[in-house]
Amino acid sequence: MIPAATREKIYKWYAVANVSDLPLNEGRRVYFGLHEVALFRLPGGFRAVANRCPHKGGPLADGIVAGNSVFCPLHNWKVGLQCGTAKPGAGEADGAGCVQVYPVKVMNSIVFIAFDEVSSERENS
Amino acid sequence: MNRKKLVVIGNGMAGMSCLDEILKRRPDFEVTVLSEEPYYNYNRILLSSVLAGEKPLDEITINSREWYEDHGITLCLGSRAEEIDPKNKNVTDQNGIVYPYDLLLLATGSNPFVPPIEGVNKRGVFTFRNMADTKNILEYGAPEKQAVVIGGGLLGLEAARGLLNQGMRVTVVHLMDRLMEMQLDLTGGEFLKREIEKLGITVLLNKSTAKIMGDGPAAEGVLFKDGSMVPADMVVVACGIRPNVELGKKAALHINRGIVVNDFMETSDPSIFAVGECAEHRGKVYGLVAPLYEQGKVLAATITGDKGPMYEGTTLATKLKVLGIELFSAGDFQAKEPDMEVVSYQDHAFGVYKKLVIHQDRLIGTILIGDAQDANRFLEIIRKKEKVGDKRHRLLFDQPPAVAGSPTDVMSRPDEDTICGCIGVTKGQIVQAVREKGLTSLSGVKACTKASTGCGTCSSVVQSIVVAVAGSKFQEEKKEVLCGCVPFAKEKLRNMIKTQQLKSVQEVLDIYGNGTGCSFCKPALSYLVDEVLCGDHKEDRSARFINDRVHANIQKDGTFSVVPRMRGGVTSPAELRKIADVAEKYNVPMVKVTGSQRLDLLGVKKEDLPRIWADLGMTSGYAYAKAVRMVKTCVGTDFCRYGTQNSIATGIELERLLEGLYTPAKVKMGVVGCPRNCAEATVKDIGLVGMEGGWQVVIGGAAGKTVRAADILVTVKTSEEALEAAMLFFQYYRENGEYLERTYDFVVRLGLEKIRRETIYASEETRRGLMDRLNKARAKTVNPWLEESARPFHPRQFHDFVLPKESEALIGSLT
Fold this sequence. Notes:
The structure holds two protein chains of two kinds.
Chain A: E1 11-18, E2 27-32, E3 35-42, E4 45-50, E5 64-66, E6 69-71, E7 78-80, E8 85-87, E9 97-98, E10 101-102, E11 104-107, E12 110-116, H1 117-121
Antiparallel strand pairs in A: 1-12, 2-3, 3-4, 4-10, 5-6, 6-7, 7-8, 8-9, 11-12
Chain B: E1 4-9, H1 13-24, E2 29-35, H2 47-51, H3 65-70, E3 74-77, E4 81-85, E5 90-93, E6 98-100, E7 103-106, E8 110-112, E9 125-127, H4 131-140, E10 146-150, H5 154-165, E11 169-173, H6 186-198, E12 202-204, E13 209-213, E14 221-224, E15 229-231, E16 234-237, E17 241-243, H7 246-250, E18 259-261, E19 272-274, E20 279-281, E21 284-285, H8 289-303, E22 317-319, E23 327-331, E24 340-347, E25 352-359, E26 362-369, H9 375-384, H10 407-411, E27 418-420, E28 425-426, H11 427-437, H12 442-449, H13 459-470, E29 481-483, E30 486-489, H14 490-500, H15 505-512, H16 521-532, H17 546-550, E31 553-554, E32 560-562, H18 573-585, E33 590-593, E34 599-604, H19 609-616, E35 628-633, H20 647-658, E36 667-672, E37 686-691, E38 694-699, E39 702-703, E40 707-708, E41 711-716, H21 719-736, H22 743-750, H23 752-758, H24 764-780, H25 787-790, E42 801-803, E43 813-814
Parallel strand pairs in B: 1-2, 1-7, 2-3, 7-19, 9-16, 10-11, 10-16, 11-12, 18-20, 35-36, 36-37
Antiparallel strand pairs in B: 4-5, 5-6, 8-17, 13-14, 14-15, 20-21, 22-23, 23-26, 24-25, 25-26, 27-28, 29-30, 31-32, 32-34, 33-34, 37-38, 38-41, 39-40
Helix pairs in contact in B: 1-8, 11-12, 11-13, 20-21, 21-24
């Protein structure tokens, strides 16, 4: 679940929302420090990725959710919410990219996202 | 440099198609064309489509100025040839200009025959033959006017249909005991009369016109020899044509009914040739398009010194180009000789009549009414003079695969055979286009060659050619599935949603799809369940695009734009003040006047949206949705000194009637008070164009990536009728448009005729159904900008989460 390269970093869980704050199959933006995260409520649980499409920076939180993917509202790139891989939607030009995936968990109907301490202080790359 | 001088008199279809054939042979001629009409060569056959509002006047030009220039042709427009001096070989026009010739081609066509009755010179009496006639009729006619067409032949019936489309009440009077007696027997005439009457046209037979009445200078009625009378605001005389042989007489040519030509298309003067309707060949004068192409090819050979090809006459075949009626007649259909046999079939309930005439085991003629799909098959058998033999007993109904319509059959025809008579496209041209451009569909050929874009009756033959040439690459006209996620055509899905009352996108996806959908089919299905159930669906916001979730248009930086509704582009000081206050209060980075006569607040943060709507207190303009956008209006009769209709009030009314409804793709509308078109109604999805005494309702216009002039759906008298026609088309588009298909593609895909037939000319019941569903859906709409305060979809619909910087990590670290 956590990308290998960042595994040694220190993560801390932060409460971001109540479960009932999000409708099923929709996303919301979460701001924390320099992080901007797109938080989604899927039928199988919550997912969070960086809220910046690798294509032109579109707000993924506003995209249409289908299965385990979200489609960017600006140019329809398809971003997988399991591992963050991104590719152009049907009929679009070639390309590929990746967005950061944030660990999420739910306890007592509260949604927690894990932010690493370093990048919460400086700009997310 | 003694180039031979070729002078062509007549700039019509016969003269120019013949000249085109001549030029293909690259002779060293110096060509001059004298044209009495002040227009470039146009397609005369399509004048009836112009009258019916199916084509604009400027779209029927065949050869533009460039064509004449490119071929070095001297074109003298408005130059009527008056004299021919065959001795000194020159022609003189009405201005006294003399044109010497070495070779002279007469393509003077024919004149409309006007019977010598009293009153034919009154105002409001027209012939229907050329561009000027058509313009005059269109100008004089107006909705609700009484029109009488004298003559129930091909041209008269096409004129009648055109006038009906212009909203007039039409009566056709005919001297004979049946309509189209040149093409039909008595039974066929009866079948046709019933079909014509079904359209709403009155037909009077055995009526000999005595006089066109009218106390003043204008026609007011038509009096018949039996003493009866029909009131008429306008009269169209379509009593047939007479070959125009005046010049031929002056040149002392051998004249009978027409200018007599031999099999090489030569007249009695070796330097003079004749082609088309003015020519008489083996005792026959032709008034249709197919023979003149054949004659033109032979003449081109003769005149360039290749005396090989000979013209041997054409088996006449006629198709009636009248919306909603299939009629075909060919060859000898009368069976007057005792040794001729008739095979026939009649079904009065369905209006189908088929007749075959057989002579000495050969098919020599046919009449088909109500179902003319076998027309080409029979015509082929007649032209080939095949023996019928033992095929006879299944000739009428059987379509064995190796006969007409099938690829092999069409492909056996010579390349120069004209497939599309309207546009004049040959089999060879279609085959070449398919091969060289790699076309794979009927629509591809239509776009590339224009074949089958006239009356459209040849589309099945054109398609057979594509099948034969493209082989396995051939593509049926697309009945595409909606999406890979829900692999059914839209029409199927509509039925399933309706019959099984599937209320939500997720239900459709679960039962008929892959359960998850994608960013295309989820909004498409959202539209579909809403439209099919007339707003009684279960709204699933997650299946909508972000714009439809937050009722604003997402911008490239993730902010939104807000456009309040401003019906008809009319606002007030109070409204403007509120907009100004909101713009300041929320630091809106830009306020812009849009192309739709509205104001746009750009760069708004999502979380500010509900408060902005509350402060504005206005209705959503739906500038973000595949929905009714706006109605743009001009100033109209309220203020404009040219205005003929109240465009503002009508535009506001139209917007009120349709606002808040989703559509397959955005719908922009315009209402203008006069044909000056200041609010550009003719490039809108739906437009109302006011004129003296009525409105034109136009559809399918666009001024976006595609620019397209709208087509006239109908012309009506009152604004109520105009609004009704607009609403009928609107709902029809909602129900039949593919998702994301704009009206300009929709109108082209379905064709104007089909749309008219299924909306404004549909049965009372069908029209009421469309209106009921529209009104039901309209009643379900709410201003989405009230949603947040009145009944929020989700309590935190616009809420994003901002964590304070000093938030504490609640469960410690994760390593």
